[in-house]
Design goal:
The chain is of the alpha+beta class. Helices cover 20% and strands 40% of the residues. It has 3 helices and 10 strands, in the order H-E-E-E-E-E-E-E-E-H-E-E-H.
């Protein structure tokens, strides 16, 4: 069921991620999307996985994508609000997630990690089996998502951006 939900939910992730997808390839727990910016032709490839629990269709996605200045770490969630940022935390295993402010996309459905948070997460995530993310929405409700990271290192190797 998780894989069938992946195909449907990744369509939702594409809607919040600029660029057009030209290829989707499974890589363990992740999917690689080969795409480029339609206006500039710049690489906008990404790797995405879905949360183990997803109570709302399209919610609970974790994406690393090529952006103008390197990589971006994006967490898609249920509607988070129209503020410019929200609190997001992550942890591994039994660790308590440490929260920081992440920038919200204009759709209110995705949060983008600050560069230093992304770099710290990726450095450790390639060695961990799972990560737990907690994100707060506009009503101060907390949403928790658990992601399997089994093939993250191979998936990141498919991205041309660094």
């Amino acid at each position: 069921m998780r894989r069938s939900m992946m195909a449907w939910a990744t369509a939702g992730l594409l809607a919040v991620t600029p660029g057009s997808a030209s290829a989707q390839q499974p890589l363990g727990d992740f999917y690689f999307f080969d795409r480029s910016d339609p206006a500039t032709g710049e690489d906008r490839s990404s790797v995405t996985t879905l949360a183990e629990e997803s109570y709302v269709s399209g919610a609970g996605g974790l994406t690393v994508q090529c952006a103008e200045d390197g990589r971006e770490l994006v967490l898609t969630a249920s509607y988070l609000g129209r503020d410019t940022s929200t609190q997001v935390g992550y942890g591994f295993g039994e660790e308590e997630p440490v929260e920081t402010a992440w920038r919200l996309r204009s759709t209110g459905m995705a949060a983008i990690a600050p560069r230093e948070v992304m770099e710290g997460f990726l450095a450790r995530a390639v060695q961990e089996p799972t990560a737990v993310f907690v994100v707060s929405d506009f009503q101060a409700r907390r949403h928790t998502y658990t992601f399997s990271l089994g093939s993250l290192e191979a998936a990141l190797g498919r991205l041309s951006c660094r």
